[in-house]
Specification:
This protein is an alpha/beta fold and 246 residues long. The protein has one domain: Rossmann fold, CATH 3.40.50. Helices cover 36% and strands 8% of the residues. Strands 2-1-3-4 form a 4-stranded parallel beta sheet, sandwiched between helices. Strand 1, helix 1 and strand 2 form a beta-alpha-beta unit. Helix 1 crosses helix 6 and helix 2 packs parallel to helix 3. The longest helix is centred in the last third of the chain and has 23 residues. It is globular and about 50 Å long. The protein starts with 37 loop residues before the first strand and ends with a helix. 49% of the residues are buried.
């Protein structure tokens, strides 16, 4: 998890289960039902998350946060999640699929351009490796006069991938897909200390099991608290950006 401009502060908002807000999902709507709304696009990845978490962890968390946003802020519609990103640093671990930074940037630009019927687009990013493409896409879209926001959840520097943070979130969201019996610590140094080695040889160069952090102590209760706190920060950022107020 890395932060790419999340808003500060905590919004109040509703606390009902976002999975029940089917009316806020673009993919389940017919075109006459789509009004002049803010489009939230969950941006994930399909990549290894250690031996204990599913490959779609980032996508699952981003999609959940977008649904929680729609439950807090009026007139937000959630697009189908983008399940592929820039995950080249995880190459070598079976199951990882990556479209790379240039292709991802192009995809995001074209998605932003095609969303002319919406009042704006919020990219909810669940994978730190997408940040370079996302920043470039947002910069270009804004230069074209489009109303675009990028946001990502933040996390501890020594728990950036498949550690306690993401394991807790997935224990709340998809407990049956978390394999706690094989969960183990990987590289536990803060991410800035690992960056040179990561750029040179990928995640495998610093962590044999693909984990950057330690999943020990993860719990579904902690996962819910994290998701709610992230969603409050996201909602606050979107209210400020879109003019909904606090």
């Amino acid at each position: 998890m890395t932060d790419s401009g999340s808003g500060s502060g905590s919004g109040s908002g509703s606390r009902h289960d976002p999975d029940h807000d089917a009316g806020a999902e673009l993919g389940r709507s017919a075109w006459p039902e789509v009004g002049e709304s803010v489009l939230a696009v969950p941006l994930g990845a399909t990549e290894q998350h250690g031996p204990h978490l599913p490959l779609d962890t980032d996508t699952t968390i981003a999609a959940d946060l977008a649904r929680r946003l729609a439950a807090r802020v009026p007139d937000v519609v959630v697009a189908p999640a983008v399940p592929y990103g820039a995950s080249g640093e995880h190459a070598g671990f079976p199951g990882t699929l990556s479209i790379g930074t240039p292709a991802l940037e192009h995809l995001l630009v074209e998605l932003g351009r095609s969303a002319d019927g919406f009042r704006g687009v919020v990219f909810v990013n669940g994978h730190g490796g997408n940040t370079e493409a996302l920043r470039a896409a947002v910069r270009l879209l804004r230069e074209e006069g489009r109303h675009v926001l990028a946001w990502a959840p933040s996390g501890p520097a020594d728990d950036s991938h498949a550690g306690r943070t993401e394991t807790s979130a997935m224990l709340h969201l998809r407990p049956d897909d978390v394999r706690l019996h094989v969960a183990a610590a990987g590289a536990t140094a803060p991410l800035p200390e690992l960056l040179d080695a990561l750029r040179e040889g990928g995640v495998g160069a610093v962590s044999a099991n693909g984990v950057l952090g330690d999943p020990a102590g993860a719990s579904a209760a902690d996962g819910l608290r994290l998701l709610e706190a992230w969603a409050d920060h996201l909602a606050s950022a979107v209210r400020t950006w879109s003019g909904h107020g606090s």
